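Input for the complex:
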Amino acid sequence: MSDTNTLVRDIEPSHDSCRAVSETLARIGDKWTVLVVGALSQGPLRYNQVRRAVDGISQRMLTLTLKGLEEDGLVSRTVYPTVPPRVDYELTELGRTLIVPLQVLHGWAMAHRPAMLAARAKFAESRAPGSQQPAFTTPK
Amino acid sequence: MSDTNTLVRDIEPSHDSCRAVSETLARIGDKWTVLVVGALSQGPLRYNQVRRAVDGISQRMLTLTLKGLEEDGLVSRTVYPTVPPRVDYELTELGRTLIVPLQVLHGWAMAHRPAMLAARAKFAESRAPGSQQPAFTTPK
DNA sequence: CTGAATCCACCAAGATACTG
DNA sequence: CAGTATCTTGGTGGATTCAG
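Predicted:
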């Protein structure tokens, strides 16, 4: 509606750091990346070894995740021209630095996840008490 | 439930611990949560204040994100029955504990994001130089 | 001002089958 | 063994509109 468009250049320099966190989270915060990194944190693994370590991942997602990690320089891919083919994946130096913040996150999760679950249960209870909610159950 | 499994050490964290990290990341690792938490980390804010602080977020996403955080007990919601209505959002004690791992993540991002970007650029160059590797794009 | 509700586009992700 | 190709689907998130 604003025709002349009051050029409100919303510069947010102070929250630029939050952007960095957000972008990083967008990279490593997907469904499988941390699990793959966790599996590789114990040492180099072959393709199917990673697959077995990360239970439930599909071939497609494993390939995509590994490719993304390789692209970001977090994982190195080594092909041995043998038969049958063998491909090793290993955390790079850069990738290993990720383990520390991941462990911090793990510590937080272990310490506060029960509280979060409790809060969620309490929240659900306050919204669906089961004792006072007519007009929805229609018992008749 | 064998009570003698106390020998399970952190050597194999890929089953339980990484799951916890993954689940936690699934909660706070979405597009806006960390930005909202970051905005609220400086103190309580009203709805539109958060909206302005987190530039680019839509009302829908802000509401959903805040509701999710409230449900998880990370953010408290205070309604002032005034006119016009006023709603304050504030990090709870639990929510404030999130700041620490977030700062760790921020530190990692600041330290290693350049390396990641460089690795990605290098990777892209090795794959699409335009001069070295012709016809790699599977001419169907 | 603070939401809720609806519609819709996009993409992550699973399943499956095929290749080298 | 180590991937790739294709189809399909469910969820995420954006834009817009309505309501208290």
